[in-house]
């Protein structure tokens, strides 16, 4: 038994994917525990409010960081010293729009907490992006473990003493993020360029990466945004719960993407093709694991939420298709980006974004409260199909030339 444990840690030490996957798994265990605890303890009305606030924060910091991650990892030499400048610009703008979206429906305290949370989480994510580029994968994952562990402890204490307001729980997330930021001294500091001259030209040079990343950050939250616009707070809470369940499935896809993007950037064409073949070889096992986890989440969900969200299981089943489709698409997206075909990627995401809204309005009267989830599945399926088609046509063109 001890020998098997030692072998595992030796593999973990030398395997980037295992470092990220195991660290991500541990951090997600704490995250899932936090979310399950909150789902169980908050009333439906409270959780509806919590879901909207949390979604605005997650959307805000992902909108600010996703474009930077793409350009920093794939074009490191050009943007090495501008990551903090770009990060502060993006996080400030996205925080402003996130607060503006909810203005009038939330209190001044909640507006302040949302703005500060987006800026804090964005800064932490910028440091994680630097660690990812330098392939410090243990540090990349460990910082999330610390954050989620502290957040779990704080939420448990706060709720136990009766402080269960959504804004208080979000404030606890901000506090939990601060110690994790201190973990990144090992990353080292690059010389930071604070000069704004040339920033517009930089944006124009990577406009398609920025636009595709922006749309890619917004699409995951469209089901909640649509449910908030057209349905009751109970439906909003139902989508909030279902999306928390979906996040469990997304952790594998996220770990895969983190390592895959960084590794592909350092590979030549033949090495990339070999990497794809290895992925396909393991796909049957990955599918079995995926459906096993999906079934487990489906079965335990009524226990977690006390059966208060009657439709959460069905919404989760629909949303569970998305991480699987996303993994397939992400492989080809990375190839297209590395081949400088960012315009094609943007067009695919733009069409998918349009399909999301078009399909929602077409099926709204038929699908009822399931319409936002069905529209999201249509959007992701469209994006993946178009990405695969673009990849094969671009490959064919290169071979002919």
UniProtKB/TrEMBL annotation:
Transmembrane regions listed in the UniProt entry: 20-38, 44-63, 83-100, 106-123, 135-161, 167-184, 205-225, 245-267, 279-300, 315-337, 344-363, 369-393
Taxonomic superkingdom: Bacteria
Keywords annotated in UniProt: Membrane, Transmembrane, Transmembrane helix
Record flagged with keyword Membrane: yes
The protein's name in its UniProt record: Oligosaccharide flippase family protein
Species annotation: Chitinibacter bivalviorum
């Amino acid at each position: 038994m001890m020998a098997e444990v030692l072998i595992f840690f030796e593999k973990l030490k030398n395997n980037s994917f295992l470092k990220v996957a195991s660290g991500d798994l541990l951090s997600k265990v704490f995250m899932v525990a936090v979310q399950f605890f909150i789902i169980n303890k908050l009333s439906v009305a409270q959780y509806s409010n919590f879901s909207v606030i949390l979604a605005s924060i997650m959307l805000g910091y992902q909108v600010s960081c996703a474009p930077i991650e793409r350009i920093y990892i794939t074009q490191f030499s050009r943007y090495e010293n501008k990551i903090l400048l770009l990060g502060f610009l993006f996080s400030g703008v996205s925080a402003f729009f996130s607060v503006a979206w909810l203005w009038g429906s939330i209190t001044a305290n909640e507006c302040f907490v949302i703005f500060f949370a987006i800026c804090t989480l964005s800064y932490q994510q910028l440091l994680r992006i630097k660690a990812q580029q330098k392939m410090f994968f243990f540090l990349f994952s460990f910082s999330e473990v610390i954050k989620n562990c502290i957040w779990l402890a704080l939420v448990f204490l706060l709720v136990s003493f009766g402080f269960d307001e959504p804004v208080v729980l979000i404030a606890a997330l901000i506090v939990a993020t601060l110690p994790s930021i201190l973990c990144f001294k090992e990353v080292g500091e690059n010389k930071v360029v604070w000069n704004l001259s040339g920033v517009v030209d930089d944006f124009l040079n990577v406009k398609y990466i920025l636009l595709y990343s922006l749309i890619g950050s917004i699409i995951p939250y469209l089901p909640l945004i649509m449910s908030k616009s057209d349905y009751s707070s109970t439906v909003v809470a139902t989508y909030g719960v279902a999306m928390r369940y979906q996040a469990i499935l997304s952790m594998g896809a996220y770990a895969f993407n983190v390592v895959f993007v960084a590794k592909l950037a350092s590979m030549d064409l033949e090495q990339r093709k070999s990497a794809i073949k290895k992925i396909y070889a393991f796909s049957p096992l990955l599918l079995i694991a995926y459906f096993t986890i999906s079934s487990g989440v489906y079965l335990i969900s009524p226990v977690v939420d006390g059966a208060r969200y009657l439709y959460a299981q069905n919404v989760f089943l629909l949303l569970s298709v998305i991480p699987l489709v996303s993994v397939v698409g992400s492989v080809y997206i990375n190839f297209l980006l590395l081949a400088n075909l960012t315009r094609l990627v943007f067009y695919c995401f733009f069409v998918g974004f349009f399909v999301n809204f078009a399909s929602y309005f077409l099926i709204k009267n038929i699908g009822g409260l399931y319409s936002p989830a069905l529209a999201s599945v249509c959007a992701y399926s469209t994006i993946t199909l178009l990405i695969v088609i673009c990849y094969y046509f671009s490959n064919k063109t290169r071979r002919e030339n």
